[in-house]
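REVIEWER CHECKLIST
Item 1: Sequence provided? yes
Item 2: Single chain? yes
Item 3: Sequence as submitted:
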Amino acid sequence: MAELDDNGHELRGGLRYPWPQPPASGQAGEVAAGVWWLRMPLPFRLDHINLYLLRHDHGWVVVDTGMNTAQTQEVWARVFEQVFAGQPLLAVICTHYHTDHAGVAGWLAERFRCPVYMTAAEYRSLYVAVPGEQAPGWDFVNFYAKAGFGDEQIGELYRLVQNGHFRPLHFNSYRRLREGDRLRIGSRQWRVV
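Item 4: Structure as written out by the authors:
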């Protein structure tokens, strides 16, 4: 039997889970008025990330984008049709530069001719090249060894990041987010932390 908090939400390991089931892979569900949770699939062991779709006046704002894969673009095509229902994407917010969060920001921005919002440091990090050598350099090995990776795991990770999915589709401009900025999206105020 699951432990419940005072509001009847399930507790697991001290964390509150207000929704008993996440959306299916590649699907979205409304979790609050105008806030949709999109479970975007990934092509490796960590098999998804959570993205958010925010209703705003005459269109939508998305928080994070998914990885640069055909599957990601297929999911977005369904979202445009089923969730956006013909309304435009007005802005993309990238929480950080990882390719699973910013991988198709450029594609979305170009398609809808909308701005991308992120911090300056995260924008610059998008343009740090993925290592291209046949074998990982000492610094790559050292970094991941300190994080607890074994030699085999380091080799597997290095082969994985060589894949084109780890090269986000770039964009040439962005709107800078700073600590404490406030964004009005729909009827809510969101604060940058």
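Item 5: Key structural point noted by reviewer: Residues 131-166 form one domain.
Item 6: Recommendation: ____
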